[in-house]
Design brief:
- This protein has helices spanning 33-44, 48-55, 61-65, 103-116, 141-150, 152-162, 164-168, 206-224, 250-253, 260-276, 278-298, 303-314, 355-364, 369-392, 396-411, 417-429, 434-447; strands at 79-87, 90-97, 121-124, 128-138, 172-182, 190-199, 227-233, 241-248, 324-328, 334-341.
- By secondary structure, it is of the alpha+beta class.
- It has a four-stranded antiparallel sheet with strand order 3-8-10-9. A four-stranded antiparallel sheet has the order 5-6-4-7.
- The chain is globular.
- The two termini are 34 Å apart.
- The structure holds (R)-mevalonate.
- Residues 100, 283-284, 286-287, 290, 387-388, 391, 396 line the site of (R)-mevalonate (MEV).
């Protein structure tokens, strides 16, 4: 038994020792915050300082002052743990920073269902980012392209000279591609864009690739006979995609009122709906980002970049499409898959200055940015599964409402155990209004 009085099963090696901490913690949601932290400290071998960091909001105003300008404070969001995740046979406790009720519970519940089908199976491209150099006023776009490609080896060497440390870490510029954005005609010059394909190792890589782009822009313009314009990464990081699939057994798909086949067919139809309609695809993908963004945030990564990449990738065919799709497999079970760019890092950037982001990564126990991307995409697929399962069966409001009821109970003034009592009463009545919560709380307090 642990110090919190719960039987946690066998001790697992800590992530830093290279082992995987079990992500199965039945009843975690029923524990007090102290008990949860006690259990986490034991499983993930947190130090007292790290536990204190979690309790104190993970970032001091002084630290914030080193991150951005004109600091006047910090702004906290809830940090919860996504449970049950097993990815490529490895368990991960997933820190999720998010304000929306039900996101963490729903993802954890879906991860438990996927676990029953063997867990998530993920693969990722190498960590290749694209830096773009715009070349305009090109008199002959065809010969300009050829001139750049003919000089590729020297250009790659120049790119690598600009980032010697990256090369030492095993990364560096791998390739150069030229795209014609506007062909030159007899009447007007054209525009090219040069893509520098850079292996960023475990960094997100924005600063790395921007430096590379700036270092060779003048030479590129000279070769093309034009002028250089912008030199900046592309957030459509489609050379750095992650693909995840999962299999959900029919037996675990069953809901209160619907059997597994009905729920599976409802999810497949929901997927088809999103494949056919961009209005639905946007909401479908929002449900996916419900899972991804909280992990991006909890690990100090750039969620605007990940969002931009995801939606640009979703629209790459010219029509906005769902990032994840669902089908019935030959054996009747539900099969899901997701693919999206994942431009994230496990070194540098925010991680240098934000202790909460470092702790988030430590809890996850990932060894590389590539592995982190696979976890994030898996959480996205889980969130999508949870949303579609609810929508295809009882509807989203039932689950949402019981969790929403807790926030309403708190806003009405409930504290401690009263939060759950008031929330349960609101859910039972099917009336989750603030006034009703105030009334129930008043009655409970009168009785006490
Ligand atoms: C709500 O945050 C997300 C959903 O709208 C996603 C979906 O409709 O698939 C429930």
């Amino acid at each position: 038994m642990s110090k919190s009085g719960h039987d946690h099963g066998p001790r697992h090696p800590s992530p830093s020792q290279g082992g995987s901490v079990s992500s199965r913690v039945p009843g975690f949601y029923k524990l007090s915050i102290d008990e949860r932290l006690g259990l986490l400290s034991e499983r993930s071998q947190l130090s007292q300082a790290e536990e204190a960091l979690l309790r104190s909001g993970c970032l001091s105003v002084e630290q914030a002052n080193h991150m951005v300008e004109n600091v006047i404070g910090t702004y906290a969001l809830p940090l919860g743990l996504g449970l049950n995740f097993q990815i490529n046979g490895r368990d991960h406790l997933v820190p999720m920073c998010v304000e929306e009720p039900s996101v963490i519970a729903a993802a954890s519940n879906a991860a438990r269902m996927v676990r029953e089908g063997g867990g998530f199976v993920a693969e990722a491209d190498p960590p290749l980012m694209i830096a773009q150099v715009q070349i305009y006023d090109v008199p002959d776009t065809e010969s300009g392209t050829q001139a750049i490609l003919a000089d590729k080896a020297a250009l790659i060497a120049a790119c690598n000279d600009a980032q010697p440390n990256l090369q030492k870490r095993g990364g560096g510029t791998r390739d150069i591609e030229v795209r014609t954005l506007e062909a030159a005609t007899a009447d007007r010059p054209g525009m090219l864009v040069v893509h520098l394909i850079v292996d960023c190792c475990d960094a997100m890589g924005a600063n790395l690739v921007n430096t590379v782009a700036e270092s060779v822009a003048a030479r590129l313009a000279e070769l093309a006979g034009g002028c250089y314009g912008l030199r900046i990464l592309s957030n459509l990081a489609d050379r750095r995609c992650v693909r995840v699939r999962c299999r959900v057994p029919l037996a675990v798909l069953r809901s209160e009122r619907f059997d597994g086949v009905a729920v599976r067919d409802g999810i497949v139809l929901a997927s088809r709906f999103a494949e056919l309609d961009p209005y639905r695809a946007a909401t479908h993908n929002k449900g996916i980002m419900n899972g991804i963004d909280p992990v991006v945030l909890a690990t100090g990564n750039d969620w605007r970049g990940v969002e931009a990449g995801a939606h640009a990738f979703a629209a790459r065919s010219g029509v906005y499409r769902p990032l994840a799709t669902w089908r019935a497999g030959d054996d009747g079970h539900l099969l899901g898959q997701i693919e999206l760019p994942m431009a994230i890092g496990t070194v540098g950037g925010t991680l240098r200055v934000h202790p909460g982001a470092r702790l988030g990564l430590q809890l996850l126990g990932v060894k590389s940015a590539t592995e982190l991307g696979m976890v994030m995409a898996s959480v996205g697929l889980a969130s999508n599964l949870a949303a579609l399962r609810a929508l295809a069966a009882e509807g989203i409001q039932q689950g949402h409402m019981s969790l929403h009821a807790r926030s309403v109970a708190v806003s009405a003034g409930a504290t401690g155990d009263l939060v759950d009592v008031v929330a349960a009463e609101l859910a039972k009545l099917g009336d989750v209004r603030h006034e009703r919560a105030v009334q129930i709380l008043g009655q409970l307090q009168d009785r006490a």
